UniProtKB/TrEMBL annotation:
GO biological process assignments: cell adhesion involved in single-species biofilm formation; negative regulation of bacterial-type flagellum-dependent cell motility; phosphorelay signal transduction system
Enzyme Commission number(s) from the entry: 2.7.7.65
Residue ranges annotated for the Response regulatory domain, each copy included: 2-118, 127-245
Alphabetized UniProt keyword annotations: Phosphoprotein
Protein name listed in UniProt: diguanylate cyclase
4-aspartylphosphate: modified positions: 51, 176
InterPro entries xref list: CheY-like_superfamily (IPR011006), Diguanylate_Cyclase (IPR050469), GGDEF_dom (IPR000160), Nucleotide_cyclase (IPR029787), Rev_trsase/Diguanyl_cyclase (IPR043128), Sig_transdc_resp-reg_receiver (IPR001789)
Gene Ontology terms for molecular function: diguanylate cyclase activity
Alphabetical list of SUPFAM superfamilies matching this protein: CheY-like, Nucleotide cyclase
Record Pfam families: GGDEF, Response_reg
Annotated catalysed reactions: 2 GTP = 3',3'-c-di-GMP + 2 diphosphate
Length: 426
């Protein structure tokens, strides 16, 4: 990366050179507009940084002249000035200045330049679905995307692209409006937005060779996030792709953090199973599901034996290890539909959808045997387990399930502990 600095003040030259060189830039410094013009004719630069007031020409006039040269039309130009008026800002933008920095705040110049250059150098990590039926255009766009460090899957029809979407997690879809095949680019946008998964929020960048405003508006109304016109201008395409990919990945991070916070709010921090608050939320849903599917629902109450004595004898740290060990065991034993929660203290609840009496008893016996073998906290641990089951056409009532299992736990305790007892209604 190479920067041209047009500045006649040694102080500001040092500040700018230091900032750019720290970012890995090679710098060339000149003091006049004439020297800058000659230098630009000989060398290629990635950015120009100039003063508003040059010895031989206004920085604004220099920028206007620069923009008339096709080779420099898209070259970023950053201007330094001590004038903070809105009028100057407007004139600078009209002249083709990319961004204006104020000399009165040296620290801000350094921070702003660093941020600006880092944006220019940013490399993107992500996956793009490119749908383009012109081999020449597809090759050009794929080259641009690859240079941005993006992985590209390219298809020439919407049908092939839609088949690939379920297998791939894409950060961006780039599609031409007009495509070969039975589905157009507009149809692709419509199909993606109709999907019942996170794929539906994948950003879409449309490509259009037509200047028909109605077609572009239709594409945006269907759910495209942005569009670029053909022939594609590389800098514009890269900027729009970068914005969409960055926004998608930022949203992914926010949603991941939200899911993580949600997990923290519904999990018991010591044992890793769900907490009592989430049990109150989830249990009615499982009852509704059982009635809808006309399937049995079983409930286990697992109550550790002599847990108070463990805490009193070995200390709460050892007791916590026992609880954590049981939580880990429940997590390993629960299937995809099963639900385990810590109800309080040493008492745990396990809900088993689609599980009848015989299966629930067998599950509880296996769980008790596994707990005996586990020796959490290096202690011989047992539990009293109460089991209850509601089978259609009985209405599913969690409170009733819990009461029956709770009474079974008391019978297990009275019977000597370290056993499974089946609860009975009434």
């Amino acid at each position: 990366m190479h920067a041209l600095i047009i500045e006649d003040s040694p102080v500001f030259v040092k500040i700018i050179e230091h900032t750019l060189q720290a970012l890995g830039f090679q710098t060339t410094t000149v003091g006049t507009a004439a020297e800058a013009t000659a230098t630009l004719d000989r060398q290629t630069f990635n950015v120009v940084i100039l003063d508003l007031n040059l010895p031989d020409q206004s920085g604004l006039d220099f920028c206007r002249t620069l923009r008339t040269n096709a080779a420099h039309r898209l070259l970023p130009v950053l201007m330094l000035t001590s004038d903070e008026s809105e009028l100057l800002l407007q004139r600078a933008l009209e002249a083709g200045v990319t961004e204006l920095f104020h000399k009165t705040r040296l620290a801000e110049i350094q921070v702003s330049l660093r941020d600006y250059i880092e944006r220019m150098q940013r490399q993107y990590k992500g996956r793009v679905l490119l749908v383009e039926d012109s081999p020449t255009t597809a090759a050009l766009l794929k080259h641009m995307l690859t240079r941005m460090s993006l992985t590209v899957d390219q298809f020439d029809t919407a049908e092939a692209a839609l088949d690939a979407i379920p297998d791939g997690q894409y950060d961006l879809i780039v599609s031409d409006i007009m495509l070969a095949g039975q589905i157009s680019g507009l149809g692709l946008v419509r199909s993606v937005r109709a999907m019942e998964s996170e794929v539906a929020r994948t950003p879409i960048l449309g490509l259009s060779a037509t200047e028909d405003a109605a077609r572009k508006i239709e594409m945006l109304k269907l759910g495209a996030n942005d569009y670029v016109s053909k022939p594609v201008i590389e800098e514009e395409f890269i900027a729009r792709v970068g914005n969409l990919v960055s926004a998608k990945q930022l949203l992914d991070e926010v949603l991941a953090q939200r899911r993580e916070l949600r997990e923290h709010s519904i999990r018991d921090p010591l044992t890793g199973v769900y907490n009592r608050r989430y049990l109150a939320e989830r249990s009615p849903q499982l009852c509704v599901q059982a009635e809808r599917d006309q399937q049995p629902l079983s409930l286990l109450i697992v109550d550790l034996d002599h847990f108070k004595a463990i805490n009193d004898t070995y200390g709460h740290d050892r007791g916590d290890r026992v609880l954590a060990g049981l939580g880990k065991l429940l997590g390993e034993r629960c299937g995809e539909e099963d639900f385990a929660a810590r109800f309080g203290g040493e008492e745990f609840i396990v809900l088993l959808p689609h599980c009848g009496k015989t299966q629930a008893l067998a599950y509880a016996e296996r769980l008790l045997e596994a707990l005996r073998s586990l020796r959490p906290g290096d202690l011989d641990i047992t539990a009293s387990i109460g089991v209850s089951t509601i089978t259609p056409p009985q209405p599913c009532d969690f409170d009733k399930l819990f009461k029956i299992a709770d009474e079974a736990v008391y019978r297990a305790k009275d019977g000597g502990r370290n056993r499974v007892v089946q609860g009975h209604e009434g």
